[in-house]
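User: Modeling request: complex.
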Amino acid sequence: MFKIISAVIGRDLKLAMRRQADIVSALFFFVIVVSLFPLGIGPEPDLLRKLAPGVLWVAALLATMLSLPRLFADDHRDGTLEQLALAPHPLGLVVTGKVIAHWLVSGLPLALIAPVLGIQFDLSADALVVLTFAILLGTPALSGIGAIGAALTLGLRGGGILLSLLVLPLYIPVLIFGAGAVDATVAGLGGEGHLSLLAALTFASLGFAPWASAAALKIALE
Amino acid sequence: MIHWNSFADFIAMGGYGFYVWGSFGLTALIMIVEPIVVVRNRKSTIARLKRQLRAETRNTAE
Amino acid sequence: MKDRFNLYRFASPATFYPLAGTLIPWFVALSVVFGLAGLWLGMLVAPTDFQQGEGYRIIFIHVPASWMSMFIYLIMAGWAAIGLAFNTRLSGMMAQALAPTGALMAFLSLWTGALWGKPMWGAWWVWDARLTSELILLFLYIGYMALTAAIDDAKRADKAGGLLLLVGVVNIPIIYFSVKWWNTLHQGSSVNLTKSSMAETMLWGMLLMAMCFWMYSIAIALMRVRTIMLERERHTDWVKAELLGKAGEGK
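Assistant: Request completed. Predicted assembly structure:
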C-alpha cells in the first residue's frame, strides 16, 4: 500500500520538478495577494495584526486553487490516468499519493513563506509559529478536498473557474479553524483547540477525499 | 375573527409594511415567474424536438 | 418482489412521465389551497406578536423557504445516492429538476431574512451562523448547477453531480458547526433568536405555508423533470409517440 503511494509521490514530484516555474508562480501569487492588502487597507499595525490571519488564509486558499486543475489534467491528456484506473491496485491509493505530492509542492512552500509575510503584518513571534503550524496542518485538507473538485471537473471547458466554485465553499471550515488558531494566539487565548480541530479536518479529508476523487475520476473516464 | 380594523392598517403592517410586503412581494413574484419560465421552456423544447423529429422522418423517407 | 418490480417500473421515464403529468395539477391545486389557507390564517387572523409587532409576519414565508432550501438539498442527495447505487436514470433527472427551485428557496430565505433582520436587529445582514450557513447552501446549489450545466454527456453530468451532492451533504454539518463555533467566538452581533412562545394560529399559519411551499416545489420539479425527460429520451419510441400524439391534436 505504502509502496504504491510512495511510487506515485516520487513520480509526481519528479514531474513537478520539471515545471518549477509553476510552483514558483503559485508562491508569488500568494506573496503578491498578501502584500496587496496593506496597500488597500492602510498601514496601521493594529488593524493589520487583526486582519493578518484571515488575509493570509484566504490567500493560501486561492494559491492552492491555482495548481488544482493540473492535478489530474496532465495525466488525463497523455492517457496515464486511464492506465492507472485500469491497474489492479485501488485508484484511491494512487489519488492519495497525488494529493500528498500536490501538498508537498503547493501547501508546504506556502507554510514556509507564510511567517515572512506575517512579519509584514506585525505579527508576534508566537503568532508566526502558530500561523506556520496552522498552514502546515490545514493545507493537506485543501489538497484533499481540492482533488475531488479537480476530478469532477476533469476535461470540462471553463474547468478552472468551475473548480473554484465547487471547492471554495467546502474550504470554509479549514479557513475558519486555520485563521481562528492565529486569531486566538494574537488574542492570547492559545490556538491549541483550533489546531487540533484543523488536524481532525485534515485526517478526515485525507481519509475520505481520495476515495471520493477516485470515484469522480472513474465517472469522468467512463 | 379578522385581526385588522381597516385595509389601510393591513397595508401598513404596523409600520413594517415595507419589510413585510417586500418579502411577500418577491416570493409571490418568484412563485409566478418560475412556473412561467418552466412552462415556456417546456413548450420551446417540445417545439424543437418536434422539428427535429420531422426532419429525421423526412430524411429517412427520402 | 412485487414491490420491487413496481418501483423499477415507476423509475422508468416512460411510465413516470404520464404519471407526473397527471399528478402536477393536483399538487398545484394543493399548493394553492394550502397557500390561501396559510395566508388567511397568517396575514388576516393571527394576532400581533408582543415583541416584534406586525413585522414577525415575515416568518410565514421565511421559515418555509428556509426549510425547503434544506429539504430539497437532502432530497437531491437522496436521489443522488439512489442514482449512484442503482444506476437509475430517473434519479439524476429529479436531482437536476429540483436544483433551481432549491436555489431559489435559499435565495428567498436570505432575502426575507434580510428584510426581517433590518427592523428587528437593525442590520440587513449579520454574520449569524444560520444566515451564513444558508448563504453557503446557496453556493452549494450554484456549484451543483454549474457542474451539471458544464458537462454535455447527461450520464456523466448525473453521476458527477450526484457525487458532488453527496460530498456536500457530508460537509454541511461540518460547515454548520464550524460557522456556529466561529460565530460564538467572535460575538460580533447580539443576535438572539430565542423562541418566543408562538400563538397557535401563528404556528398553524406557518405549517400551512410550509405545506404550500412543499406542494409548490413538488409541482415545479415534476414540471421541470418532464421537460428534461423529453430532451434526454428524445431518441426513444415513447417520446416520439408523445411528440407525434401532441402534433396530432393540432396544437
